[in-house]
């Protein structure tokens, strides 16, 4: 009996990763609830064990480390068998033979009663075979060396990374390059467990402290820090406040690199070439990845332009958000990734970024669309932007000799640079299209008109095309970027 129990607890120990069970959390009303969650990882810190849980059917941003007392071990479900993850000793996992999830009821076999196991720092390095979209990279190993700048290193004071040059460099063993794990995986079914867990606790960026939502491949040595410090102008990452302060005495940037192509009031946009300002672009991608989960992150920043929106004060041009854009897109994409940093969210900046992306398309004389899939927040912002933009045009139409005004989908698309498909989906979403006597008719109800007017009154931040100084380049004629 004793032996049997020990075997069971040992099994539980091995198998908790990947298991599902109810986990106690507080809902928005601060009430207890027990949603089902999957255990992604286990770690031991002095005196206690922590479990990283992913709440099934919840927003992934809520995933977190929890203490054992919040786990309902009595309702533990073992993972289904198809995931064949070898155990550390190379033997196949000791999963139950039934392919069905199994509810195991082992009273008193909670994790607090199980024998302790050494902590698992290797969980971060565990390489699960994954297919990558780029052949140059494989599981955590960069086959293609990141561009360093040889001969530009200077002697550094001990225990502080960084040079004053345009490089994310280090002399104390912290790799100068981010990890190449996972985020390059384009097929979600091969997602590495590491990349499903947020790994940075807190980022200090200028006067803001940001709580990341998702994994970002910062060097692993930095993931154990309580706070990761970023230079808010060059986005270089540093491991301590002291290092940041030392960096700031040498960093002369007070705005993003590249050309300022727009300024109105305190809002500016800078255009950054991913090839010319590679380090900045990579550091921007690392920061953005903390808040974007759905996109493949490209370390090969060469084919992209980055448009960084800033807000100016006496200290400099502070980053608010950005979007990236392929220099050449065969699919009419005018935005690849787009992000408003959390401290600036829900204040109209997201829509300003979107509006700016279409202003660029207008200058280029093209229609454009954001790369799919959009995040939940991204889709909301785009839907709202498209709706307002299209309604603005429809409501400005004047009757034509007493007749109903007429406009084609093509006209709307050309005026706004919004791709035809997005115009159609927006008209459908707003439920404006009616088919009447062999014709399509757009009907604007009182509700729609009033709702639109209210929304536009709240939209204070707008792009002024007169303040844009932008000449599009024909990248196809430039040979290699
Ligand atoms: Zn800096």
From TrEMBL:
The family annotation for this protein states:
Belongs to the MYST (SAS/MOZ) family.
Q: Main subcellular localization, coarse class?
A: nucleus
- Can you supply one Gene Ontology CC term for this chain's record? NuA4 histone acetyltransferase complex
Q: Where is the MYST-type HAT domain?
A: 195-472
Instruction: Return the SUPFAM superfamilies for the record.
Output: Acyl-CoA N-acyltransferases (Nat), Chromo domain-like
Q: What class of enzyme is it?
A: transferase
Q: Which reaction does it catalyse?
A: L-lysyl-[histone] + acetyl-CoA = N(6)-acetyl-L-lysyl-[histone] + CoA + H(+); (S)-lactoyl-CoA + L-lysyl-[protein] = N(6)-[(S)-lactoyl]-L-lysyl-[protein] + CoA + H(+); (2E)-butenoyl-CoA + L-lysyl-[protein] = N(6)-(2E)-butenoyl-L-lysyl-[protein] + CoA + H(+); 2-hydroxyisobutanoyl-CoA + L-lysyl-[protein] = N(6)-(2-hydroxyisobutanoyl)-L-lysyl-[protein] + CoA + H(+)
Q: What is this protein called?
A: Histone acetyltransferase KAT5
Known SMART domains for this protein?
CHROMO
